[in-house]
Amino acid sequence: MKSRSDEILTPKMKRMAFLLILLLASSSSLIADSQTIVETLPGYPGPLPFKLETGYIGVGEDEAVQLFYYFVESEGNPDEDPLIIWLAGGPGCGTLRAFFYEIGPMQIQYGTYMDNVPALQLDPNSWTKVANVIYLDAPTLTGYSYTKTPEAVRSSDTLSASQTAEFLRKFVKTHPRFLKNPMYVTGISYSGIVIPIITEELYKGNDEGLEPIVNIQGYMGGNPLTDKTGDINSRLEYAYRVALISAELYESTKKNCNGNYAEADSNNLQCMLDIDEVNKRVGDINIQQILDPDCDAATNLVRGGNPIRTGNRKSLRGNPIKMLPARSFMKDGFCRGDYYNYATLWANDENVMRALNVREGTVKEWLLCNLDMKYNYGKPSMPSYEFNIRSSVVYHEKLSKRNCRALIFSGDHDMMVPHVGTRNWINSLNLTITDSNWDAWYANGQDAGYKTSYAHDNYSLVFATVKGAGHTAPEFKPVECFEMVKRWFANRPI
């Protein structure tokens, strides 16, 4: 006996319905192939106690750039908590650095192994306790991200910003549950160049009616490189303020170089002599954290390179895991970069890549930082990257005219991107200081740093120092940084 639907549907209509079902099934499989719910990870015992998704989103022309991400839903209230994207900087540094060492849900247990990889443990100060966090490997050829064509390999400040903005719109389109969550663009170090560009592009896209409309509310930058010349120049004043050089040498250098050390005239002999004297004083100081042991080449205050340490630059893939015995490097002091080698060993394990659903054959070797993008002041480009934005202050100026919130924080022991230069460019925005002016802020009843709050119409900016922290502030002071962002996300005073 025929059903009523069989009587209504013609053979042609049935064929069309069948083709539609095949199309929908194919589309679903493509989405499934790009998104993986990761329930267990090598190195961690048992199921993960948080929801981790990994995947790829194609951006750029013909989606030739495939950006890899880790997405951790908030462990608090994922339907209400902010949706943030975190950029690790470099440019070209993998976001596993943030996942393990800065703001992520897991930490590495140094010297301990499980499943033939470094063992993992939970981080009690993970920002995922108060926010939905996307950890993005950007720009392309960072971490597990890759390109489908050779032409798409090369990136730049402007292209990276544009592709990250495109990524965010596509992410919320495929994750409509988070469309209404407040969105913030966040990151650290070199990401300070692209963060305000991405944020402005999202606001501008909303103005132009780009779909989907995203609920962009603001941005956050930690020790952000922003005005390259100004930030480099501020190192001299910082070195004087923390008693690394004398008042006489500081005044002489300032006078003879006319306040410009980053672009000093090489024909100005007295200026060059003063800069050499400065470098003699700071050569054995760790520019990333002035209290840490110095394990890198001699510090050059003016010609400093990449504002993020890369760790051991040698390939570790073929080396046995025994090369990192339990804290052996702690006997005579330590080099923080040695810690990062554990992440390299973990990320290059085949079982780890399978668990994360990294596409086979797309990445020959996971590197903490892609040195073909390494930033060096004075170089306009590297083989895989063009540094085509000298200063992103103009984008902060544009955002100051929007309904927008900003948090800028600086570890006060960072000489790579000193808080001195950061405060200089903030002051250039001509904002009004509101309820705090270098007031102390507290964590666990102790002074955790100092804060200043600014406003202009519907724009607000809080600048905070983190006492005792270095260049990647959350890595050095995780408790304090977690308290700071928890309050800021909740629209409470820091």
Instruction: Count the DSSP helices.
Output: 14
| Biggest beta-sheet profile | 12 strands, mixed
Provide the residue-averaged pLDDT: 89
The percent range for strand residues is 15-25%
Shape category: globular
Q: Structural class, judged by helices and strands?
A: alpha/beta
Search tags:
494 residues; alpha/beta; 12-stranded mixed sheet; 3-stranded mixed sheet; 17 strands
How would you describe what is shown here?
The protein is α/β, with parallel strands linked by helices and 494 residues long. The chain has a domain at 4-36. The protein contains 14 helices and 17 strands. It has helices at residues 4-8, 11-34, 96-102, 157-174, 195-207, 228-241, 247-256, 269-282, 336-347, 350-356, 393-399, 419-427, 473-476, 478-489; strands spanning 35-38, 52-59, 65-72, 83-87, 106-114, 117-122, 132-136, 146-147, 155-156, 183-188, 216-222, 381-382, 385-386, 404-411, 432-443, 446-456, 459-466. The strands form three sheets. Strands 1, 2, 3, 4, 7, 8, 10, 11, 14, 15, 16 and 17 form a twelve-stranded mixed sheet that branches. The protein is globular, with a radius of gyration of 24 Å. The termini are far apart. Mean pLDDT is 89; it is low at 1-9, 11-32 and 305-331.
